Amino acid sequence: MGQEMPQRRPAVHKVRLEPVGVEMEVEEGETVLDAAFRQGVALPHGCKEGQCSACKCILNEGDVEMLKYSTFALSDPEKETGQVLLCRTLVYSDVEVELLNYDEDLLSRSIAVKAFNGKLASVEPLTHDIVRIAIDLDEPMKFWAGQFADLTLHGAEITRSYSMGNPPSEPDRLAFIIKRYPGGAFSTAIGETKIGDPITVKGPYGSCFRREQRDGPMILVGSGSGMAPLLSILLDQAASGETRPVRFFYGARTTQDLFALDVFADLEARMPDFKFIPALSHVEADSEWNGETGFIHDVLRRHLLDMENIEEADAYSCGPPPMIDAALPILQMADIDPARMYFDKFTQATQA
Ligand code: FES
């Protein structure tokens, strides 16, 4: 019998997060963000793959290496001045970083990321290219409204991130809204998945979740499958009994791309001050549409002019990066505090 070789344990380094003074351990070979997920330390993040810049911070000291990332998330001048993306950072010594985007609320509401065994429970078409799927979990997953999870389809071995579209009060049956793209690997594979087939759900992720007990209006801005996290936030807000005004601006191409209108009509009747404001960018010649038209950021601009107490607002934007990049300056020009503007950019490789 041969002798067993001792396994080399990965080196572990300390990472100190300023200005909050939190310290955590990171193993060599794992990113700082993955270590934070493992230990239940909530750091600001979005895409988890170097594309969105939500995890950008300043390296105060230490020896690090960055995995591949997009220069849209971290430009060369930013890198030269010592900024790093925590989702791409490997550490080779003890390290100190200065967080740029964080709030006390985020750090106090950490939930450790875990993998759950799930089974496909239902698939329901919502439009010609959007489906809603439900997944039953073997144990409840605690999450905040607006967060997302990684779904892995077995057999196809494909993993993609999608936001929960149900409120946190339903933690063992999760709903996801999935846009089908021609040739899209995940949406094709989900079409071939049968009811009862296993799906691994890992989460929760995301810092664009509902902040509670705030004054001022709540502004929701989305398009496409960005509906899911905003619907979760809205349903959670409705259940909270809080009475702040809520406005949901939703951009679609045509009437064929709108869905869940009955849910919004019901919420408008039940909530003290809620309005759903859909806008179409393309109105068919024979359409009877008499609602808003144009791009959603233009509609947002017009409505924000008349809103009271807007400087006290919280704004949540979810959807494709160009929509969010157009909406954020408008929210800022309306005097909303940038620290109260939460967003989740759905990149093609993550949420589709
Ligand atoms: S760039 Fe790090 S989470 Fe998106």
From TrEMBL:
Residues 13-103 form the 2Fe-2S ferredoxin-type domain. The keyword Iron applies. InterPro entries: 2Fe-2S_ferredoxin-like_sf, 2Fe-2S_ferredoxin-type, 2Fe2S_fd_BS, Beta-grasp_dom_sf, Cbr1-like_FAD-bd_dom, FAD-bd_FR_type, FNR_nucleotide-bd, OxRdtase_FAD/NAD-bd. Residues 113-211 form the FAD-binding FR-type domain. Keywords: FAD, Flavoprotein, Iron, Transport. SUPFAM superfamilies: 2Fe-2S ferredoxin-like, Ferredoxin reductase-like, C-terminal NADP-linked domain, Riboflavin synthase domain-like. The keyword Transport applies. It holds the Pfam family NAD_binding_1. PANTHER family: NA(+)-TRANSLOCATING NADH-QUINONE REDUCTASE SUBUNIT, NAD(P)H-FLAVIN REDUCTASE. It comes from Bradyrhizobium xenonodulans. This is 2Fe-2S iron-sulfur cluster binding domain-containing protein.
